[in-house]
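dumping this here so i dont lose it
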């Protein structure tokens, strides 16, 4: 579960426009049985942008004064711009305190250079509505900036959004202490309502350019661009489950030129969890991530653990990881279900990461599996508890599948482990993993277990503890590694 805390917004890069197309270069995956068809990657990202006609929020009473809540002034300007057919709402340089804002169709909310939006720390300033949080649909507070059921909307500029999340971090850690005593670790993330940074939901042709709880969640949306944002969720402490960018049951998404420093997954692909995710059954597919930097965090690129609706067609290239958990991380659990397939990652420079590649079908059991303690069985429980406790039936429907992963041209130094990749058993293996042209300096080599058609070629490892990659229960695989 992820929650934003501080988002930095720096220099303007530019829009994705109808005239701009994405050229997919001929990436090198080595000697694979079939070269991947990546033609789908040419159509991702926003296809339209709002009109350039300008409205100034100062005309609606906005003043740089943090002693008052400026939400109503900015929202009035957004509403007026929408009603007249769209355009750009300009927030001038200054410091403004806000609650939830809602960008509407045709509107570009532009934060000028020198603009700071400070989020209210009062959760009552974020009205609740039905949403999806960490894989299940439930009522949740609105984000600081919301784009709901909109088309052709944008958030741009050289400004700064400070989401002031520490109050929610502190609330979570106190609740978690009590919940763990009661054996309720599995539900605390859902009971502790916290405010996201930017939410794009049920929207199309959204553009996020250089703006700065998921710091940014793209949910149930199509043709969205996230370009040039800088996210820093490690200001003043380390918040619980603070992701950077989450792409959740959405399609045709472009993420580029971003820098993410957070306390959980940096750029994460999701598609719902457990019975509720299987009910919704909406995949995330056709995602391009390029020219991005990950600093602290759990994974430069993560798929999961919410895999129920399936994840497919993800291309990530020209990336840098500094001190990140894993370069590529695939995770799920045995009640999620779904298939993660056609994942392509190439051209990565990594320094001081925990794992170059991490694959886990049974991630974080204390969080992943819900069980109601006996003392609660006779009590009335909240609706979202019941959702979390709904079993996946038959249980085989909850088994996740990972296949068709291409990972090439990676350089890693001062890292802990090269690979930790495991299937579940003889009948549930990780399948068709192709690793090519990787050079890594690591403390330990790691393991590959229960794989099928795993191919490693031109892999060069410098291993501090002199271990070699442990191979167990793999079939129809060819693993060639040079140890130095």
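and the seq i came up w/
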């Amino acid at each position: 579960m992820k929650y934003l805390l501080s988002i930095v917004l720096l220099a303007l890069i530019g829009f994705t426009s109808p005239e701009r197309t994405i050229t997919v270069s001929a990436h090198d995956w080595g000697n694979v049985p079939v070269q991947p068809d990546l033609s789908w990657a040419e159509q991702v990202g926003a296809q339209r942008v709002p009109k350039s006609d300008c409205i100034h929020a100062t005309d609606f009473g906005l003043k740089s004064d943090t002693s008052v809540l400026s939400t109503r002034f900015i929202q009035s300007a957004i509403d007026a711009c929408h009603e007249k057919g769209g355009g750009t709402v300009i927030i001038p340089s200054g410091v403004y305190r806000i609650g939830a804002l809602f960008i509407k169709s045709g509107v570009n909310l532009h934060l000028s250079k020198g603009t700071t939006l400070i989020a209210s720390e009062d959760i009552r300033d974020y009205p609740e509505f039905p949403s999806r949080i960490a894989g299940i649909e439930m009522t949740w507070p609105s984000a600081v900036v919301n784009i709901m059921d909109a088309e052709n909307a944008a958030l741009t500029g050289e400004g700064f959004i400070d989401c002031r999340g520490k109050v929610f971090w502190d609330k979570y850690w106190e609740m978690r202490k009590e919940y763990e005593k009661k054996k309720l670790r599995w539900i605390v993330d859902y009971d502790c309502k916290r405010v996201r940074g930017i939410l794009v939901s049920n929207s199309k042709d959204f553009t996020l350019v250089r703006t700065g709880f998921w710091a940014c969640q793209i949910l149930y949306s199509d043709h969205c661009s996230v370009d040039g944002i800088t996210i820093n969720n490690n200001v003043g402490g380390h918040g619980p489950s603070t992701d950077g960018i989450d792409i959740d049951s959405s399609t045709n998404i472009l993420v580029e030129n971003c820098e993410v420093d957070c306390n959980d997954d940096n750029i994460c692909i999701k598609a719902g969890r457990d019975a509720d995710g299987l009910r919704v059954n909406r995949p995330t597919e056709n995602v391009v991530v390029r020219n991005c930097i990950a600093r602290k965090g759990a994974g430069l690129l993560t798929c999961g653990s919410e895999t129920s609706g399936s994840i497919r067609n993800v291309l990530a290239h020209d990336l840098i990881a500094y001190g990140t958990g894993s370069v590529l991380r695939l995770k799920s659990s045995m009640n999620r279900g779904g298939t993660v397939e056609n994942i392509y990652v190439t051209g990565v420079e990594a320094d001081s990461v925990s794992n170059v590649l991490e694959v886990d079908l049974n991630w974080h059991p204390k969080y992943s599996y819900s069980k109601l303690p006996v003392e609660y069985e006779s009590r009335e429980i909240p609706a979202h508890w019941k959702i979390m406790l709904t079993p996946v039936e038959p249980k085989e429907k909850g088994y996740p599948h990972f296949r068709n992963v291409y990972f090439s041209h990676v350089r890693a130094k001062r890292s802990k482990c090269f690979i930790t990749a495991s299937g579940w058993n003889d009948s549930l293996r990780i399948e068709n993993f192709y690793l090519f042209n990787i050079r890594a300096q690591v403390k330990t080599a790691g393991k590959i277990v229960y794989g099928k058609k795993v191919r490693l070629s031109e892999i060069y490892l410098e291993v501090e503890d002199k271990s070699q990659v442990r191979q167990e229960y793999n079939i129809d695989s060819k693993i060639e590694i040079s140890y130095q």
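The two ends are 40 Å apart (CA to CA).
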